[in-house]
Design goal:
Strand content: 15-25%
Number of strands: 20
Distance between the termini: 6 Å
Largest sheet: 10 strands, mixed
Bound molecules: inosinic acid
Structural class: alpha/beta
Mean pLDDT: 95
Strand order of the largest sheet: 9-7-5-2-10-1-11-15-19-20
CATH class of one domain: Alpha Beta
Radius of gyration: 21 Å
Shape: globular
Number of helices: 12
Protein backbone atom coordinates (compact mmCIF):
# COMPACT_ATOMS: atom_id res chain seq x y z
CA UNK A 1 0.00 0.00 0.00
CA UNK A 2 1.16 3.55 -0.76
CA UNK A 3 0.68 6.53 1.57
CA UNK A 4 -3.08 6.84 1.53
CA UNK A 5 -5.66 9.36 2.69
CA UNK A 6 -9.10 8.06 3.62
CA UNK A 7 -11.81 10.71 3.77
CA UNK A 8 -15.57 10.84 4.09
CA UNK A 9 -17.23 11.68 0.78
CA UNK A 10 -20.68 12.47 2.20
CA UNK A 11 -21.92 13.92 5.53
CA UNK A 12 -19.76 11.76 7.79
CA UNK A 13 -20.68 8.31 9.15
CA UNK A 14 -19.75 6.65 5.84
CA UNK A 15 -17.93 3.80 7.52
CA UNK A 16 -14.41 5.29 7.47
CA UNK A 17 -13.61 3.42 10.69
CA UNK A 18 -14.01 0.07 9.03
CA UNK A 19 -12.08 1.09 5.90
CA UNK A 20 -9.15 2.65 7.78
CA UNK A 21 -9.06 -0.32 10.13
CA UNK A 22 -9.03 -2.63 7.12
CA UNK A 23 -6.09 -0.72 5.61
CA UNK A 24 -4.29 -0.08 8.95
CA UNK A 25 -2.68 -3.48 8.89
CA UNK A 26 -0.57 -2.41 5.92
CA UNK A 27 0.57 0.90 7.47
CA UNK A 28 3.34 1.87 9.88
CA UNK A 29 1.28 4.78 11.22
CA UNK A 30 -2.37 5.80 11.15
CA UNK A 31 -2.98 9.51 11.66
CA UNK A 32 -6.06 11.55 12.47
CA UNK A 33 -5.61 15.10 11.14
CA UNK A 34 -8.88 16.94 11.88
CA UNK A 35 -11.90 17.07 14.15
CA UNK A 36 -12.22 15.70 17.64
CA UNK A 37 -14.62 13.44 19.49
CA UNK A 38 -17.50 14.58 17.30
CA UNK A 39 -16.30 11.69 15.12
CA UNK A 40 -17.43 8.18 15.90
CA UNK A 41 -15.54 5.41 14.18
CA UNK A 42 -16.75 1.87 14.76
CA UNK A 43 -14.15 -0.83 14.33
CA UNK A 44 -14.95 -4.52 14.66
CA UNK A 45 -12.07 -6.93 15.10
CA UNK A 46 -12.37 -10.60 15.95
CA UNK A 47 -15.89 -10.11 17.26
CA UNK A 48 -14.88 -7.18 19.51
CA UNK A 49 -16.46 -3.79 18.81
CA UNK A 50 -14.42 -0.63 19.38
CA UNK A 51 -16.19 2.74 19.42
CA UNK A 52 -13.43 5.21 18.72
CA UNK A 53 -13.94 8.97 18.91
CA UNK A 54 -10.45 10.45 19.19
CA UNK A 55 -8.23 7.44 18.73
CA UNK A 56 -7.09 6.59 15.20
CA UNK A 57 -8.18 3.14 14.02
CA UNK A 58 -4.57 1.90 14.07
CA UNK A 59 -4.66 1.90 17.90
CA UNK A 60 -5.65 -1.77 17.97
CA UNK A 61 -2.51 -2.83 16.10
CA UNK A 62 0.24 -2.48 18.73
CA UNK A 63 2.96 -2.38 16.06
CA UNK A 64 1.25 0.50 14.19
CA UNK A 65 1.69 4.04 15.53
CA UNK A 66 -1.64 5.76 16.21
CA UNK A 67 -1.11 9.49 15.85
CA UNK A 68 -3.41 12.36 16.80
CA UNK A 69 -1.98 15.22 14.79
CA UNK A 70 -2.04 18.99 15.23
CA UNK A 71 -5.24 19.55 13.21
CA UNK A 72 -7.30 17.81 15.87
CA UNK A 73 -9.08 19.22 18.91
CA UNK A 74 -8.79 16.99 21.95
CA UNK A 75 -11.00 16.53 24.99
CA UNK A 76 -8.64 14.83 27.47
CA UNK A 77 -11.42 13.56 29.77
CA UNK A 78 -13.00 11.74 26.86
CA UNK A 79 -9.68 10.63 25.40
CA UNK A 80 -8.55 9.14 28.71
CA UNK A 81 -11.87 7.28 28.99
CA UNK A 82 -11.30 5.90 25.48
CA UNK A 83 -7.79 4.78 26.42
CA UNK A 84 -9.21 3.07 29.52
CA UNK A 85 -11.84 1.40 27.36
CA UNK A 86 -9.34 -0.10 24.92
CA UNK A 87 -7.24 -1.25 27.89
CA UNK A 88 -10.20 -3.29 29.16
CA UNK A 89 -10.35 -4.81 25.67
CA UNK A 90 -6.75 -5.98 25.84
CA UNK A 91 -4.77 -3.12 24.23
CA UNK A 92 -2.35 -0.97 26.21
CA UNK A 93 -2.37 2.12 23.97
CA UNK A 94 1.44 2.45 24.12
CA UNK A 95 1.43 3.10 20.36
CA UNK A 96 -0.45 6.41 20.82
CA UNK A 97 1.22 9.77 20.04
CA UNK A 98 -0.47 13.17 20.46
CA UNK A 99 0.70 16.37 18.84
CA UNK A 100 1.86 19.13 21.17
CA UNK A 101 0.18 21.52 18.71
CA UNK A 102 -3.31 20.00 18.81
CA UNK A 103 -5.84 22.21 20.61
CA UNK A 104 -7.61 21.31 23.83
CA UNK A 105 -11.37 21.18 24.13
CA UNK A 106 -11.79 22.81 27.52
CA UNK A 107 -14.83 22.15 29.75
CA UNK A 108 -16.17 25.63 28.96
CA UNK A 109 -16.13 24.84 25.22
CA UNK A 110 -18.82 22.21 25.84
CA UNK A 111 -20.87 24.77 27.73
CA UNK A 112 -20.40 27.33 24.93
CA UNK A 113 -21.44 24.78 22.28
CA UNK A 114 -24.79 24.27 24.07
CA UNK A 115 -25.16 28.00 24.66
CA UNK A 116 -24.58 28.89 21.00
CA UNK A 117 -26.92 26.17 19.77
CA UNK A 118 -29.65 27.45 22.07
CA UNK A 119 -29.14 30.99 20.82
CA UNK A 120 -29.60 29.79 17.23
CA UNK A 121 -33.12 28.64 18.13
CA UNK A 122 -34.86 27.01 15.17
CA UNK A 123 -31.75 27.64 13.06
CA UNK A 124 -29.63 25.38 15.26
CA UNK A 125 -26.97 23.27 13.51
CA UNK A 126 -27.61 20.12 15.51
CA UNK A 127 -23.98 19.92 16.65
CA UNK A 128 -22.71 16.93 18.57
CA UNK A 129 -22.36 19.28 21.60
CA UNK A 130 -18.78 18.14 22.10
CA UNK A 131 -17.39 21.70 22.17
CA UNK A 132 -15.83 21.32 18.74
CA UNK A 133 -16.94 24.67 17.27
CA UNK A 134 -15.92 26.77 20.29
CA UNK A 135 -12.51 25.01 20.51
CA UNK A 136 -11.78 25.78 16.85
CA UNK A 137 -13.10 29.33 17.34
CA UNK A 138 -10.58 29.85 20.13
CA UNK A 139 -7.83 28.38 17.93
CA UNK A 140 -8.60 30.85 15.13
CA UNK A 141 -9.04 33.70 17.63
CA UNK A 142 -5.53 32.80 18.83
CA UNK A 143 -6.73 32.26 22.36
CA UNK A 144 -6.78 28.46 22.29
CA UNK A 145 -4.87 26.23 24.67
CA UNK A 146 -2.73 23.53 23.13
CA UNK A 147 -1.89 20.03 24.28
CA UNK A 148 1.77 21.03 24.66
CA UNK A 149 0.78 23.83 27.08
CA UNK A 150 -0.19 21.13 29.57
CA UNK A 151 3.51 20.64 30.22
CA UNK A 152 4.03 24.32 31.19
CA UNK A 153 1.80 25.13 34.20
CA UNK A 154 2.62 28.85 34.33
CA UNK A 155 1.71 29.40 30.68
CA UNK A 156 -1.37 27.25 31.11
CA UNK A 157 -2.51 29.34 34.08
CA UNK A 158 -2.15 32.56 32.14
CA UNK A 159 -4.01 31.25 29.11
CA UNK A 160 -6.89 29.76 31.10
CA UNK A 161 -7.28 33.06 32.97
CA UNK A 162 -7.39 34.96 29.66
CA UNK A 163 -10.09 32.65 28.34
CA UNK A 164 -12.18 32.88 31.49
CA UNK A 165 -11.92 36.68 31.30
CA UNK A 166 -12.99 36.74 27.66
CA UNK A 167 -16.09 34.61 28.38
CA UNK A 168 -16.87 36.23 31.74
CA UNK A 169 -20.30 37.45 30.62
CA UNK A 170 -21.40 34.00 29.46
CA UNK A 171 -19.88 31.35 31.72
CA UNK A 172 -21.46 30.70 35.13
CA UNK A 173 -18.62 31.46 37.58
CA UNK A 174 -19.73 28.74 40.00
CA UNK A 175 -19.07 26.13 37.30
CA UNK A 176 -15.89 27.49 35.75
CA UNK A 177 -13.03 28.95 37.78
CA UNK A 178 -9.27 29.03 37.53
CA UNK A 179 -8.59 26.72 40.48
CA UNK A 180 -10.78 23.85 39.35
CA UNK A 181 -9.61 24.13 35.74
CA UNK A 182 -5.98 24.13 36.85
CA UNK A 183 -6.58 21.04 38.99
CA UNK A 184 -8.18 19.30 36.02
CA UNK A 185 -5.44 20.25 33.57
CA UNK A 186 -2.80 19.07 36.03
CA UNK A 187 -4.41 15.62 36.06
CA UNK A 188 -4.57 15.66 32.26
CA UNK A 189 -0.88 16.59 32.09
CA UNK A 190 0.11 13.68 34.34
CA UNK A 191 -1.87 11.15 32.32
CA UNK A 192 -1.11 12.42 28.82
CA UNK A 193 2.56 13.45 29.16
CA UNK A 194 3.92 10.09 27.90
CA UNK A 195 2.02 10.47 24.63
CA UNK A 196 2.75 14.14 23.84
CA UNK A 197 5.33 14.80 21.17
CA UNK A 198 6.09 16.78 18.00
CA UNK A 199 4.18 14.53 15.61
CA UNK A 200 5.22 16.56 12.56
CA UNK A 201 8.87 15.62 13.20
CA UNK A 202 7.85 12.02 13.85
CA UNK A 203 5.77 11.66 10.67
CA UNK A 204 8.17 13.54 8.43
CA UNK A 205 10.94 11.20 9.59
CA UNK A 206 8.83 8.12 8.94
CA UNK A 207 7.82 9.30 5.47
CA UNK A 208 11.44 10.08 4.55
CA UNK A 209 12.43 6.57 5.66
CA UNK A 210 9.87 5.13 3.26
CA UNK A 211 7.41 4.01 5.92
CA UNK A 212 3.74 3.83 4.93
CA UNK A 213 1.33 6.26 6.51
CA UNK A 214 -2.45 6.13 6.43
CA UNK A 215 -4.13 9.50 6.96
CA UNK A 216 -7.56 9.04 8.51
CA UNK A 217 -10.08 11.80 7.81
CA UNK A 218 -13.04 12.60 10.02
CA UNK A 219 -16.56 13.79 9.17
CA UNK A 220 -17.06 14.24 5.41
CA UNK A 221 -16.80 16.53 2.39
CA UNK A 222 -20.29 17.96 2.84
CA UNK A 223 -19.52 18.88 6.46
CA UNK A 224 -16.28 20.67 5.50
CA UNK A 225 -16.12 24.25 6.83
CA UNK A 226 -15.35 25.65 3.34
CA UNK A 227 -16.94 23.20 0.95
CA UNK A 228 -19.82 21.74 2.93
CA UNK A 229 -23.44 22.82 3.23
CA UNK A 230 -22.51 25.96 5.16
CA UNK A 231 -23.51 26.91 7.84
CA UNK A 232 -24.68 23.35 8.62
CA UNK A 233 -21.14 22.05 8.76
CA UNK A 234 -18.44 21.21 11.27
CA UNK A 235 -15.65 23.66 12.16
CA UNK A 236 -12.69 22.13 10.36
CA UNK A 237 -11.61 21.17 6.86
CA UNK A 238 -12.48 17.52 6.34
CA UNK A 239 -11.21 17.32 2.76
CA UNK A 240 -8.08 15.38 1.84
CA UNK A 241 -5.98 18.50 1.16
CA UNK A 242 -6.06 19.33 4.86
CA UNK A 243 -3.97 16.28 5.68
CA UNK A 244 -0.83 18.30 5.02
CA UNK A 245 -1.66 21.28 7.28
CA UNK A 246 -3.34 18.98 9.79
CA UNK A 247 -0.22 16.83 10.20
CA UNK A 248 2.60 19.24 9.43
CA UNK A 249 3.91 17.18 6.52
CA UNK A 250 4.40 18.01 2.86
CA UNK A 251 1.42 17.53 0.51
CA UNK A 252 3.59 15.46 -1.82
CA UNK A 253 3.51 12.29 0.27
CA UNK A 254 -0.01 10.98 -0.30
CA UNK A 255 -0.36 8.93 -3.47
CA UNK A 256 -3.81 7.46 -3.03
CA UNK A 257 -6.95 9.29 -1.89
CA UNK A 258 -9.87 7.05 -1.06
CA UNK A 259 -13.29 8.59 -0.51
CA UNK A 260 -15.69 6.55 1.58
CA UNK A 261 -19.35 6.62 0.67
CA UNK A 262 -22.26 4.48 1.71
CA UNK A 263 -24.21 2.80 -1.09
CA UNK A 264 -26.96 5.23 -0.05
CA UNK A 265 -26.88 8.50 1.92
CA UNK A 266 -27.37 9.42 5.57
CA UNK A 267 -27.08 12.64 7.50
CA UNK A 268 -27.36 13.61 11.17
CA UNK A 269 -28.10 17.13 12.31
CA UNK A 270 -29.97 19.75 10.34
CA UNK A 271 -29.35 21.11 6.85
CA UNK A 272 -30.05 20.26 3.23
CA UNK A 273 -30.36 16.60 2.18
CA UNK A 274 -31.58 16.45 -1.38
CA UNK A 275 -32.18 12.71 -1.77
CA UNK A 276 -33.65 12.15 1.70
CA UNK A 277 -36.48 9.60 1.87
CA UNK A 278 -38.78 10.14 4.80
CA UNK A 279 -41.05 7.24 3.77
CA UNK A 280 -40.83 3.48 3.73
CA UNK A 281 -37.42 3.21 2.04
CA UNK A 282 -35.85 5.64 4.51
CA UNK A 283 -37.22 3.54 7.39
CA UNK A 284 -35.99 0.32 5.74
CA UNK A 285 -32.45 1.75 5.48
CA UNK A 286 -32.54 3.14 9.04
CA UNK A 287 -33.49 -0.20 10.53
CA UNK A 288 -31.50 -2.56 8.29
CA UNK A 289 -28.43 -0.32 8.30
CA UNK A 290 -28.74 0.39 12.07
CA UNK A 291 -28.37 4.06 11.24
CA UNK A 292 -27.96 5.57 14.70
CA UNK A 293 -25.08 7.98 15.47
CA UNK A 294 -22.01 6.43 17.12
CA UNK A 295 -21.36 9.64 19.04
CA UNK A 296 -24.84 10.86 19.93
CA UNK A 297 -27.11 7.84 19.33
CA UNK A 298 -29.40 10.04 17.20
CA UNK A 299 -31.29 8.27 14.37
CA UNK A 300 -29.77 9.32 11.07
CA UNK A 301 -31.80 10.74 8.21
CA UNK A 302 -31.66 8.27 5.31
CA UNK A 303 -32.07 8.42 1.55
CA UNK A 304 -30.70 7.46 -1.85
CA UNK A 305 -27.17 7.86 -3.10
CA UNK A 306 -26.65 11.37 -4.46
CA UNK A 307 -24.15 11.16 -7.30
CA UNK A 308 -24.07 14.87 -8.02
CA UNK A 309 -22.96 15.51 -4.44
CA UNK A 310 -20.54 12.58 -4.63
CA UNK A 311 -18.98 13.89 -7.85
CA UNK A 312 -18.43 17.18 -6.00
CA UNK A 313 -16.62 15.23 -3.28
CA UNK A 314 -14.50 13.52 -5.96
CA UNK A 315 -13.42 16.91 -7.31
CA UNK A 316 -12.69 18.79 -4.08
CA UNK A 317 -10.76 15.85 -2.61
CA UNK A 318 -9.09 14.66 -5.80
CA UNK A 319 -10.28 11.13 -5.06
CA UNK A 320 -8.41 8.35 -6.81
CA UNK A 321 -10.91 5.71 -5.78
CA UNK A 322 -14.07 5.03 -3.86
CA UNK A 323 -14.76 2.68 -0.97
CA UNK A 324 -18.45 1.88 -1.13
CA UNK A 325 -19.81 0.69 2.20
CA UNK A 326 -23.01 -1.03 3.33
CA UNK A 327 -23.93 -2.37 -0.09
CA UNK A 328 -25.50 -5.32 1.76
CA UNK A 329 -28.09 -3.00 3.36
CA UNK A 330 -29.73 -2.49 -0.05
CA UNK A 331 -30.44 -6.24 -0.48
CA UNK A 332 -34.18 -6.78 -0.42
CA UNK A 333 -35.26 -3.48 -1.95
CA UNK A 334 -37.28 -4.05 -5.15
CA UNK A 335 -36.04 -0.82 -6.72
CA UNK A 336 -32.89 1.20 -6.13
CA UNK A 337 -32.78 4.85 -7.04
CA UNK A 338 -29.77 7.09 -7.44
CA UNK A 339 -29.71 10.89 -7.67
CA UNK A 340 -28.05 12.06 -10.89
CA UNK A 341 -28.80 15.80 -10.83
CA UNK A 342 -30.95 18.50 -9.26
CA UNK A 343 -33.79 20.51 -10.73
CA UNK A 344 -33.83 24.07 -9.46
CA UNK A 345 -36.54 26.40 -10.78
CA UNK A 346 -37.01 24.28 -13.90
CA UNK A 347 -33.30 24.17 -14.64
CA UNK A 348 -31.05 21.14 -14.29
CA UNK A 349 -28.11 21.92 -11.99
CA UNK A 350 -24.87 20.13 -12.81
CA UNK A 351 -22.54 21.43 -10.08
CA UNK A 352 -23.11 21.41 -6.33
CA UNK A 353 -24.29 24.91 -5.36
CA UNK A 354 -22.72 26.95 -2.54
CA UNK A 355 -26.00 28.22 -1.16
CA UNK A 356 -27.97 26.05 1.25
CA UNK A 357 -31.23 27.86 0.40
CA UNK A 358 -30.79 26.76 -3.23
CA UNK A 359 -30.16 23.19 -2.13
CA UNK A 360 -33.32 23.31 -0.01
CA UNK A 361 -35.33 24.05 -3.15
CA UNK A 362 -33.64 21.47 -5.38
CA UNK A 363 -35.62 18.47 -6.56
CA UNK A 364 -33.43 15.45 -7.27
CA UNK A 365 -33.48 13.81 -10.68
CA UNK A 366 -33.37 10.03 -10.21
CA UNK A 367 -32.20 7.09 -12.23
CA UNK A 368 -33.89 3.84 -11.23
CA UNK A 369 -32.32 0.38 -11.05
CA UNK A 370 -33.79 -3.03 -10.30
CA UNK A 371 -32.91 -4.23 -6.82
CA UNK A 372 -31.72 -7.70 -5.76
CA UNK A 373 -33.13 -9.99 -3.12
CA UNK A 374 -30.06 -12.11 -2.26
CA UNK A 375 -28.09 -11.37 0.91
CA UNK A 376 -24.50 -10.55 -0.09
CA UNK A 377 -22.67 -10.44 3.25
CA UNK A 378 -20.69 -13.58 2.39
CA UNK A 379 -19.71 -12.49 -1.13
CA UNK A 380 -15.96 -11.81 -1.49
CA UNK A 381 -15.55 -10.95 -5.16
CA UNK A 382 -17.27 -8.46 -7.39
CA UNK A 383 -18.10 -11.08 -10.05
CA UNK A 384 -20.10 -13.05 -7.47
CA UNK A 385 -22.40 -10.12 -6.66
CA UNK A 386 -25.93 -10.31 -8.12
CA UNK A 387 -26.09 -8.79 -11.61
CA UNK A 388 -28.20 -5.76 -10.53
CA UNK A 389 -25.62 -4.91 -7.84
CA UNK A 390 -22.83 -5.07 -10.43
CA UNK A 391 -24.85 -2.85 -12.74
CA UNK A 392 -25.31 -0.34 -9.90
CA UNK A 393 -21.55 -0.29 -9.22
CA UNK A 394 -20.69 0.20 -12.90
CA UNK A 395 -23.12 3.09 -13.18
CA UNK A 396 -21.52 4.78 -10.15
CA UNK A 397 -18.05 4.37 -11.67
CA UNK A 398 -19.14 5.71 -15.05
CA UNK A 399 -20.81 8.72 -13.49
CA UNK A 400 -17.92 9.56 -11.15
CA UNK A 401 -15.12 8.57 -13.50
CA UNK A 402 -13.20 6.86 -10.69
CA UNK A 403 -13.04 3.18 -9.78
CA UNK A 404 -14.77 1.59 -6.82
CA UNK A 405 -11.70 0.07 -5.18
CA UNK A 406 -13.24 -1.37 -2.02
CA UNK A 407 -16.76 -2.70 -1.44
CA UNK A 408 -17.98 -3.36 2.06
CA UNK A 409 -20.71 -5.97 2.55
CA UNK A 410 -20.81 -6.17 6.35
CA UNK A 411 -19.34 -4.59 9.49
CA UNK A 412 -16.45 -7.06 10.02
CA UNK A 413 -13.09 -6.37 8.36
CA UNK A 414 -13.28 -9.65 6.42
CA UNK A 415 -16.67 -8.70 4.93
CA UNK A 416 -14.89 -6.72 2.27
CA UNK A 417 -14.34 -6.99 -1.46
CA UNK A 418 -11.07 -5.35 -2.40
CA UNK A 419 -10.53 -4.53 -6.02
CA UNK A 420 -7.27 -2.65 -6.19
CA UNK A 421 -4.93 -0.69 -3.78
P1 LIG B 1 -20.01 19.66 15.37
O1 LIG B 1 -18.92 19.07 14.56
O2 LIG B 1 -20.28 18.93 16.66
O3 LIG B 1 -19.85 21.14 15.58
O4 LIG B 1 -21.39 19.49 14.54
C1 LIG B 1 -21.62 20.18 13.32
C2 LIG B 1 -22.39 19.32 12.35
O5 LIG B 1 -21.57 18.25 11.92
C3 LIG B 1 -23.65 18.67 12.92
O6 LIG B 1 -24.60 18.56 11.88
C4 LIG B 1 -23.17 17.28 13.33
O7 LIG B 1 -24.24 16.35 13.36
C5 LIG B 1 -22.20 17.00 12.20
N1 LIG B 1 -21.14 16.06 12.56
C6 LIG B 1 -20.02 16.31 13.25
N2 LIG B 1 -19.26 15.22 13.35
C7 LIG B 1 -19.89 14.25 12.67
C8 LIG B 1 -19.57 12.89 12.38
O8 LIG B 1 -18.52 12.34 12.75
N3 LIG B 1 -20.49 12.21 11.65
C9 LIG B 1 -21.63 12.78 11.20
N4 LIG B 1 -21.95 14.04 11.43
C10 LIG B 1 -21.10 14.78 12.17
Amino acid sequence: MQNTIVVGAQWGDEGKGKITHYLSEHAHAVVRFSGGDNAGHTVIQAGKTFKLHHLPSGIIYPEVLAVMANGMVVNPDKLLAEIEQIKTQGYNGANLRISDRAHLIMPYHLYLDGYEEEKRGNKSIGTTKRGIGPAYQDKVKRSGIRVGDLLYPEILKERIQQSLDSYRDILPSDQFNLESLLAKTQKWAESLAPYITDTSVLLDGMLREGKTVLFEGAQGALLDIDHGTYPFVTSSNCVAGNYSAGCGVSPIWAKEIIGVSKAYTTRVGTGAFMTEDTGETGRFILEKGVEYGTTTGRPRRCGWLDLLALRYAVRINGLTGLALTKLDVLSGLPEIKVGVGYNYKDKLIKEFPAQTHILDDCQPEYRSFPGWSEEITEVRSREKLPAPAREYLSFIEDYLQIPVKIISVGPEAHQTIQEII
